[in-house]
Design a protein that fits this description.
Length: about 270
Amino acid sequence: MRRLRLLPVALASLLLAGCGGHTHAALSDYLHRVQTAEGGMAGQLQEVTSANQAFARAKKDDPQLARKLATAERTLRTLRERLAAVTAPPQAAHLRALLLQLVDGEIGLAHEVRQLAAFVPRYSVALRPLQPASAALKTKLAASAKGAAATKALNGAKADALTAYAGTVGSVIETIRPLEPPPAWQPTYEQQFQSLSQLQASALALARAVRANNAQAIPALLHQFDAAAVSNQTIAAQKRAIAAVKAYNDRITRLVRLARSVEKERSRLEKRYR
C-alpha cells in the first residue's frame, strides 16, 4: 500500500501572522480579530501539530495518542467557530471564505487521522493469526501416506486441519467486522473481508470433500481455495487500494495549495489597501 502523507502542521495557525500595519481600517480590524482568534489558541494549535507528529511515529494502538488526536480535532472545530464569528468587510470576503474552507479541510483530515489511529493497529493485530495458521495448514496438506488405512487417517487429519483453519479465519472475520476503516483503507478492508469470507467457505467445502475422499471434487475445490487465498492481491484490488491512498494524499496537497492561496490573498489585500 502506498504511504500516507500527513499534514505536518496546523496550516491555519501560520497564515495570518504579521497581518495589520497600514491597511484600510475595516480590513485591518478584520485581520486583527482573526489574529486574536488564532493567537488565543496558539498553544492548542501547536498541540494539533504535535498530535500529527506523534501519530506519524506511532507503532501500536495508543489510548493516549487517541485522546490527543480527539483533542486536536476539537481544537480545529473551535478555531473554525471563532473564525466564522468574525465578520469580514466586503474586500475580505474572499479571504474569509478561503480561510474557512482551509480550516474545514483540516478538520476533515484531523478526523480521518483519528480514524486511522483507531483502525490500523486493531486491524493489523486482528490479521496476525492468519500467517501461522496458513503455515500450519500448508505443512499438514503437504503430508503424504502409504496404504489405504494410513491415507484415510491422513485425509481425516487434513480435513480437521482445514476445518480448524476455517475457524481461525472465521474468528478473524468477526474481529475485523466491527472495525470502521477510514476512506484511505476502505478498499483494502472490503477486499480483505471478501477474501476471508471466500477463504473460509472454500476451506470448509474442501474439508468436506477430503473427508469424504471425493477425488473428483477435490481439484476444483483446491483451486477455489488457492484463488480465495490471493484474491485480495489481484491487480484490480491493488489499484483500488492505491487510488484510495492517492485520494487521501491529494486532499493534503489541495490543503497546502489552499493555504498558499490564503496567504496570496492576504498579501494582495495588504498591498492594495496599504
